[in-house]
Design goal:
Length: about 240
């Protein structure tokens, strides 16, 4: 398949989805796999959905979650960190439970697939979710642009998609994975928060690159400041953040 980050995706609509399986990622993070009652909508990496329980007995309303799967994979996958009321309830949901999903929402992370730029992804914790979608899409569509992923976690046990990322790194020549741990020292990992020295160690230059940052607010604001000090033009930086 040739690379085709084309701009065809559906308009957001409410659709019913059924939970078909769950996969534990870390102690407090789980992936959820849903099947559409009708048919899957078209989306791009970077899109998110608003989801609510179809039978919303606790009046929890809806929450936003990035789409974790690539459009080249089947159906809908969300990866959720348990932090509060909604996420606790969805962790306990039974297989077969129905949900109302509004999507695709937001904008694709990569707008122009023909651009000859490198991509630098900066992720913290559950901020990795949309990058999973981009990476599998890139692999499946033979997207050639170089992709660097700087991924920060407290400990090795907190790494979401640990095995998948390792495999992607082996399979994709154009993918460079740099993982860092802030609360433990381990072979194969950088130590501490993502910083300018870490970027300089792996990037040949800061030019001709698009930067996408996703994670907690502190990581996002800190990364923007760091990139500005490295003279990266703000128009080449895209951010998404949730949590504290
Ligand atoms: C565009 C977008 C995409 C998102 N994608 C994802 C995703 O892919 N996976 C995901 O897990 N969440 C994602 N979120 C966050 C999600 O929408 C909810 O805010 C979150 O799951 C909290 O829901 P809750 O009802 O369980 O907690 P609430 O009861 O609403 O909040 C409980 C407390 O947890 C804090 N909190 C919220 N999120 C986090 C977090 N991630 N880490 C630590 N503390 C937090 C809140 O500030 C609050 O104090 C996304 C948010 C947006 C806007």
């Amino acid at each position: 398949m040739e690379s085709n980050f084309i701009r065809d995706y559906d308009r957001p609509e409410k659709r019913v989805f059924k939970l078909v399986s769950k996969r534990k990622e870390t102690e407090n993070v789980m992936s959820f796999f849903f099947e559409p009652a009708d048919k899957m909508f078209k989306f791009k990496p970077g899109h998110f959905v608003n989801i609510s329980f179809k039978n919303d007995t606790d009046n929890l309303g809806n929450r936003s979650f990035s789409i974790a799967n690539s459009p080249t994979e089947e159906n809908l996958m969300l990866t959720i960190k348990k932090v509060g009321s909604f996420t606790t309830k969805i962790f306990e949901a039974d297989i077969g439970e129905e949900f109302v999903v509004l999507g695709p929402l937001g904008l694709p992370y990569i707008k122009d697939e023909s651009e000859k730029v490198d991509y630098v992804f900066i992720a913290g914790g559950s901020g990795i979710v949309p990058f999973r979608s981009i990476l599998y899409y890139s692999k499946d569509t033979n997207f050639k642009n170089k992709m660097y992923l700087f991924y920060s976690n407290r400990t090795e046990e907190d790494i979401i998609y640990k095995e998948e990322l390792k495999k992607l790194k082996e399979e994709m020549e154009n993918f460079v994975l740099i993982e860092t741990l802030t609360r433990e020292e381990k072979e194969g990992y950088e130590k501490g928060r993502i910083n300018a020295d870490m970027l300089k160690k792996y990037l040949d230059s800061f030019e001709n690159k698009k930067y996408i940052i996703c994670g907690p607010k502190g990581l996002v604001t800190g990364s923007i400041e760091m990139l500005k000090e490295l003279n990266v033009d703000i128009k080449n930086i895209k951010t998404e953040s949730w949590g504290n």
